[in-house]
Amino acid sequence: MLVAAVVMARRGRRARNADVLALLVVGVGLLIVSATQLPNAILEAFDFHKGDGGRILGLTVFTLLVLVLVTLRLLARDARTAEQLSAVVEGLAAEQFHNAGLEERFENKVAVLIPAFEEAENLPYVLGRIPKTVCGIETAVLVLDDGSRDGTAKIAEREGATVARHVTNRGGGAALRTGYRLMVESNARVVVTLDADGQHLPEEIERVAEPVLSGTVDIAHGSRVIGHAEPNTFSRELGISFFNKLVSFMTRTHVTDCSNGFRAVRTGVLPQLVLRQQQFHTSEFVIEAIKRGVPAVEVPVTVVARLHGKSKKPALMRYGLGFAGAIVRTWLR
Fold this sequence. Notes:
Blueprint lengths: L1 H11 L4 H19 L2 H8 L8 H46 L10 E7 L6 H5 L5 E2 L2 E10 L5 H7 L3 E5 L5 H14 L4 E4 L11 H9 L5 E11 L4 H18 L11 E4 L15 H10 L4 E8 L12 H17 L1
Parallel strand pairs: 1-3, 1-5, 3-4, 6-8
Antiparallel strand pairs: 2-3, 5-7, 6-7
């Protein structure tokens, strides 16, 4: 039956070579188990002897090991699929942007990049307060609509912003990655990023951008810790403090706010940074910049409560695990 399934899968071209190979390995394994004494020899070698449930325990251990390996393979395949999907989505957004001839709007300007997902209510407030010039240099706004269905793109265009759009939601990190790519290709001078939900104050854009525009550093990170933040839940405050200490310890650099997306970066620096996170992107950017030796500074900013709607962040435990995973993966690579 197993051989027949493999043959049918190959003829139907529904299975990849790796999948067919896995099926064959399982089949051979079953034959070995049923026709030889090899399993007993292996169990004996690992001190899983007959009697007192030793063989059952041994089989359970090896079965769990196989399940772990299969799970890791499936996770790796899902990660590859997600990367391929993101590449397609980001590529489509870039193609539409360039076909519309929108690059010239940002050339040699301070680009204000705002990733947005389902933020139609908040965008008019945010976009209406963005300054026309920063340190005497004209600004241009790009809203990267990350697959919204609430009219976010239309609202942004109505308010005078340029819009690029993901056809499906890929996460804030993917939206920023696309926006950064477009601004590099448009020869913007500096890119300032801030949230679409009103938590970052557009009036503080000049404070964030000035160290970069003056040539003092290549990146300026906004920090609520040395600035001001409205009170949050105790667990979230504790998490922010913990991750700041963790990133500081791992990078041997004093970081006061690794989870703040309000920052300015010289556009020429962006191609040096490897940005892969779909969602937990703020710490990735900080760690990447430190690893690449990019001159940076933290500047005080204000973080307030979002204006309308609910946060797009996942539940606290999932957010903490995801954020920690992003930190470790970025540090290890």
